[in-house]
Specification:
3 helices, alpha/beta, GreA/GreB_C_sf, transcription regulation, Helix Hairpins, DNA-binding, Transcription elongation factor GreB, transcription, five-stranded mixed beta sheet, Chitinase A, domain 3, 164 residues
């Protein structure tokens, strides 16, 4: 079992749910049909469609199990509903600068939603943990694989609340 909650944004949960639905409702049934057809062709030991199909079916079933477990443990948090927008919490988009005044814009998202190239870092990543609770002007030190670095929080932003 997980030792910490699986925080996730509504969009991230929706993406997991869509993937689960596509695998279970579309890809898996088609694959079962191909395997059934291939099994009816005789010798299974040299039947590529059958062998590949069974292998792919195991991969899909593993992924479905993983997705089900992650969705069950998910705690959906809407960043737009964050009451304390003056500090860095889940879903915040933060502009930080390092000791060399190199600025980066990061969004703290669920661990299942990370995309470093797009500036989306997981909630349990070292930099994310260091930034939690920081306000504009705070300097936070984080130990990264490349060594220790200090970052200053320049700006904190949250999505606009819908319905306002």
């Amino acid at each position: 079992m997980m030792d910490h909650p699986n925080y996730i944004t509504p969009a991230g949960y929706s993406a997991l749910s869509r993937e689960y639905g596509a695998l279970l409702g579309d890809e898996r049934p088609k694959l079962v049909e191909v395997i059934s057809w291939a099994a009816g062709n005789g010798d299974r030991s040299e039947n590529g469609d059958y062998i590949y199909g069974r292998k792919r079916l195991r991969e899909i079933d593993r992924r479905l199990g993983w997705l089900a477990k992650r969705m069950k443990a998910a705690v959906v948090i809407d960043p737009a509903a964050q009451p304390d927008r003056s500090r860095v919490w889940f879903g915040a988009t933060v502009t930080i600068a390092d000791e060399n005044d190199v600025e980066r814009v990061l969004t703290l998202v669920g661990d299942d939603e990370t995309d470093a190239g797009a500036g989306r870092i997981g909630w349990s990543a070292p930099l994310s943990r260091a930034l939690r609770g920081a306000a504009v002007g705070d300097v936070r030190r984080v130990t990264l694989p490349a060594g220790e670095k200090e970052y200053e929080v320049l700006d904190i932003d949250y999505p606009a609340a819908s319905g306002n």
